[in-house]
Design a protein that fits this description.
The protein is of the alpha+beta class. The protein folds into three domains: 81 residues, no CATH class; 121 residues, Butyryl-CoA Dehydrogenase, subunit A, domain 2 (Beta Barrel), CATH 2.40.110; 131 residues, Butyryl-CoA Dehydrogenase, subunit A, domain 3 (Up-down Bundle), CATH 1.20.140. The chain is 46% helix and 13% strand. Strand 6 and strand 7 form a beta hairpin. Helix 6 crosses helix 10, helix 10 runs antiparallel to helix 11 and helix 10 runs antiparallel to helix 12. The longest helix has 23 residues. It is globular and about 70 Å long. The chain starts with a helix and ends in a 21-residue tail after the last helix.
Amino acid sequence: MIANTDFRETVRHFLDVTTPQILESTRSAAISRAKAWRAALFDCGLAAFGYPTAYGGNEDRLHARIWSEESQGKIPREDNVFGIGVGMAMPVIRDYASAEVKDRFLRPGLRGEEVWCQMYSEPGAGSDLAGLTTRAELDGDEWVVTGQKVWTSGAQNSQYAILLARTDFDAPKHSGITMFVLPLEQTGIDIQPLIQMTGEAEFNQIFLEGARIPRSWVVGEVNDGWRMAVALLAHERIRTGQGSTVNDRAQRSKSGRVPIPSQQLIELAQEKGRTGEPTVRQELANLVIGERIIEFIRRRNTVHPSIGKLWRTRQGRAAAHFAARICFPASPAWSSDQTSEDYFQFHILNCRGMSLGGGTDEIQRNTIGERVLGLPREPGSARDTPFRSLPRN
């Protein structure tokens, strides 16, 4: 066991010395730099807190706390490519998958050898995710998948996906869904990037026509996928609510998950000569307070994920609206070569997306009402009705 003081020094050396060396020596595509950095992180024993040692993990909670303290604001932005794999897919595989699936995917996933995406939403199943119609049918030793997914982040760069598909149309809506690991490098899968109004192509629509999955690559049990889906969404909301550990403040990252830091808004207001206005000062004070609340939420493990997610998206909208209304009265006239203002205008255009990804604000409020406050669920008469008998668009 490494002494805590020695472990803290190991963490600091990796973040302050090793990380810059890796990024400087790997001057290739961002994904290549991300893989090099995460492999080094894993090999130093810093990439898998909360995982068994058999998978290269470290189950020492104090070590995990030290890492959280020291890494805040120091993770290279390239590591965002592993947000779904490391932050969402691996925890669910660790907690629910078979030994075979764990042995196959945990170590390479945590080491950054494979990139993952999440295939949940469909054209007719967004907030009503349990209404999904992508089907998986067993054919010998393989599942055959047919359907369409949409709003899939990073699919064009991924090798594997966490997939939700319906395996029993005669079961009730939430009971006939199964979670799978889907290999993407095969025929029968057509990934089409979607251009957003920011000019980027983060999302994709995906057409599945006879894609195949090994029979054993199920996460959890067949027809118990809704429980797995909720568990994965909890990890996503924790990730969104706690905020980014990436060095966004210095790098001005164009991330849809990261609100504009209040310090950058203060500097922007100073540049525009607006800090003498009482209303501007009050809004800036509110943004600073909102940031501190995010910090407090991050430190409390008992906070429900939906609370953190809801507050963080609120902060993101408030920060973007401040930049738009106070500092950029001409912000709709966006020229992509305006590098200084381009960063803020990205957030202005993108801030509403923070309220949609991982479950809308309305979904979060329902969850908080039911699971935190103990309020009764909305009445529904179709909970026991077979899915094929339900009306659908």
